[in-house]
Amino acid sequence: MARIAFATSSAPIITVRTLRRRFSVFAAAKPKLPEMSQNYHHSSLEVIGGGRDRFLPALKDSLVKPYNAFPLTGFNRHVETIYAAFYRSVPSVRLRRECLRTKDNGSVALDWVVGDDSFLSPESPILILLPGLTGGSQDSYVRHMLLRAQSKKWRCVVFNSRGCGDSPVTTPQFYSASFLGDTGEVIAHVGDKFPNANLYAAGWSLGANILVNYLGQESHNCPLSGAVSLCNPFDLVIADEDFHKGFNNVYDKALSKSLRRIFSKHSLLFEDIGGGFNIPLAANATTVRDFDEGITRVSFGFKSVDEYYSKSSSSKSVKQVRIPLLCIQAANDPIAPERGIPRDEIKANPNCMLIVTPRGGHLGWVAGEEAPNGAPWTDPVVMEFLQYVESRETINGERSFEDVQQIQV
Questions:
Q1: Of 205, 225, 312, 317, catalytic
Q2: Which of 14, 130, 306, 404 is 20 to 30 Å from 278 at the Cα level?
Q3: Is pTM beyond 0.70 here?
């Protein structure tokens, strides 16, 4: 059983990590880019981005192979999505829970892998995981990434948002696609615990949208050394349009049911709250949009759900990202539509690279050596990218992979 400890967030301190990010001698210099070859990735994959030439050589071992979806699931995006959700193995990972009290008196849960502190040094790189909507450390795709990172000697922690993964809810507020306060406090807290370790993050679906929004907000001051975004909806207006079409209604009903379940556990916090909230609508929501209309958009000060979706879309944050960012999408994702991918912004940003697989569904990617029940195809690609970025730390701690758009000094 997870051990629970409450911690109070504190103001960030000046660390070796902060100093080397801000004063690196490489910060104003454009790194030499390797020569590109068309053989660095298979034609079944779309690989683009302003950072393509910087990052692609490190991933060539994985990307030179064709993307072969598992035949019994890959023929249909809904079959692959549902199969991964219900039949992918859930690895056994012992976790230790730490509950972090936020500045507004809210709470989030951080799940650390038990035993990491006994064999990992304080300088080991740390990967912070942000699951999708209503997701948490119990999800199969999260557990597989925990094991993959641990096998590479990375320290890993799952950030369970308010109410998710049985995280406690202590105020009448959950979280949203653009609320970045908790994300900033979690990253600062992890950095304070391990001041000499480089921090990285990976997010899926809504967690990816939140992560990219955070990267754009922090921009030059981002304390992370690198990040990965997977099956990010990017444009929430487009995602919402598709969410109400055909078979996608099944996902909409399933997610709204999960939101209702989370709300029902904490409904007493919303008694007599007033202020524009529509509690009956949220409590009986049959769509995610209903829940967002009843609670989310009111909690975070939006005049309408459409305004909330428009202003919370991470596609608008990509151009402000100033650390290495890998985005992985599936062309047939039913929840994160391909037409919402901000290709032009990714191409224009020398810190970003995009991989689009021909199939994969949503949180599926039932392909690769461990298909159909093992880790998704993306896991080794994610770790190859992160290890490559981590390896670019020079021996004296200065970054050779710094933002190439920084102003010359």
A1: 205
A2: 130
A3: yes
